[in-house]
Amino acid sequence: MSRPKILVYTPRQEPASVLDTLRASGCDVVMGDPEWQKPGGREAFLAAARDAVALIGMYSRALPLDRSALEACQRLRVIAKYTAGVDDIDTDAASELGIMVTHAPTEANCFGVAETTVAMILALLKRIKDRDADVRAGNWRGANMMSVYLGARASDNRPGLTVGVVGLGRIGTRVLQLLAPWRMNFIACDPYVPPDRFLLAGAKSVDLETVLRQSDILTLHTPLTKETRNMIGARELGLMKPTAILVNAARGGLIDEDALAATLRAGKIRAAAIDAFAVEPLPMDSPLRQIGDRILLSPHSASFNEDAQLGPGMEWSARAVAAAVAGKVPDNVFNPEVLPLWKERFGGSNVAG
């Protein structure tokens, strides 16, 4: 009798420690084929995934785990992602089918995104890129290179700017922690976190429209779901201050990119910094490429760090798979609503016998 299979369906140079954790669960570990990520590779992937008890890997737009893919995997009990985001998975379908989804909101991942968010805010408001280009062009301290002072000043009773966060999870909270010494004003919108989260972050809880209207700096930190897709469109952008900046280091698809390009082109907001896009790599004909210095573009790399990257997420995901194949519930379940059905199907049951 063959051993149960764990499929590393989107491999990313997993270290030996991760593979050892998976093998210690009593399962065979099969590495996915990079060709699956190319057009036409879906069928080969599904053929390999049909008898897998676990899928593990990084985020992949090329291999979305939609309902049809999940229904084809009759033995599947867990999908473990190295990343915090899971919008390449139909989590509603997974929950209905009794499939647990885990993610890896590690410090290396989440806090790396938070640090990049702060760096983008400072780069825009302190005109870092523009001033560099100006000096290289032979100019010096032009009046058009004035930057923005962010914090409160007691000397002239100047209030600090208002930072608005949409999504007060790990990343949104960390952004406010990093900005706290600047003595700015914090507001946040998140209907899914308890009231004490706002207290701990030092933010006032408000609705989305208030965040849009009052923020000098608006930063998005929500997952991409049916509810949040294109949550920032022409109407929402029209509510923002003309001096405001918008930062998205979360997920492409949260913003209507055509509407954002039109808003920036018309000068209706000051600037934007975008690290995640609806289509990636960003198409050459994207209107966002035509905005000039009003937009700072980044290649979905906010969490890329020399000493971390996906490593901690891989370790976390491997432990989640090992727990799930042993019939135990790990501590990083993304779709907790699945647990009653999952426990009925798999709870206490070690797939390796």
If you average the pLDDT, what whole number results? 95
β content, as a range?
5-15%
Q: How large is the count of helical segments?
A: 13
- The third-level CATH topology of the largest domain is Rossmann fold
Features of this protein?
353 residues, alpha/beta, Rossmann fold, five-stranded parallel beta sheet, 34% helix
Quick synopsis:
By secondary structure, this protein is of the alpha/beta class.
Protein described:
- A seven-stranded parallel beta sheet has the order 8-7-6-9-10-11-12, sandwiched between helices. It has a five-stranded parallel beta sheet with strand order 2-1-3-4-5, with helices on both faces.
- By secondary structure, the chain is an alpha/beta fold.
- It is elongated.
- Helix 1 (16-23) packs parallel to helix 12 and helix 5 (107-125) packs across helix 7.
- The model has no long low-confidence stretch (mean pLDDT 95).
- It has helices spanning 16-23, 42-49, 67-72, 91-97, 107-125, 128-136, 170-179, 195-201, 208-214, 234-239, 257-265, 311-325, 339-346, and strands spanning 5-10, 28-31, 52-57, 78-81, 100-102, 162-166, 185-189, 204-205, 217-220, 245-248, 271-274, 295-297.
